[in-house]
Amino acid sequence: MRIVIMGPAGRVGKQVVQEALKRRIDFMIVGGVVPVGRPYVRQDIGKATETGFVGATLYDELEFCIPIAQGVIDFTKPEATMETIKKCVEYKRPLVIGTRGFDEKDIQRIKFAATKIPIFMDDNISRMAEGIEDEDAAAAVGALNALLFLKDKLREPGMYNCDDALNGKQ
Questions:
Q1: 0.70 exceeded by the pTM?
Q2: What is the CATH number of the domain that holds 8?
């Protein structure tokens, strides 16, 4: 699955990159998006994540990499996630949201977006990663597993969470 990682230079974002690289049979990172003005924009993701060469470029706009993506994972900030949602809806890409701290207005916007695309969001996404003690690594693995859940059977638009995935929601 070709994926874009929002916030790959962040604490959990780095873990998503590392875990996706371990699972190359399932995932190919096609881009990462960081805030405008970062010195490593237009360089390989490995530059910002200290993972070595990845073969995917860092951008400061999702527009540059979402057309070739099959899914997006977002561990950023609520304001950035809300912009990501707009692009995912525009390009009809499934989205896994690991970001926290949304207000009620944002939650309503996310629910509306879920009428257009599949969105996976859970306060404890690490439940999708059994047996991993490191909190950030568990969140990263959980997000990747959540994206595979959305890809499975080409999920219809809707809001999904760990209970849906773990209980086998069709």
A1: yes
A2: 3.40.50.720
Give the phi and the psi of residue 155 in degrees, each rounded to 5.
-45, 140
CA distance 122 to 137: 16
| Count of the separate structural domains present in the chain | 1
Q: Which residues of 59-89 are buried (b: 16+ CB within 10 A; e: fewer)?
A: beebeebbeebbbbbbbbeeebbbebbebbb
- Write the pLDDT tens digit of every residue in 11-46: 999 999 999 999 999 999 999 999 999 999 999 999
Q: What angle do CA 161, 162, 165 make, to 5 degrees?
A: 95
> 162: which 2 tokens?
């760990």
Which residue range is the domain that position 16 belongs to?
Answer: 2-166
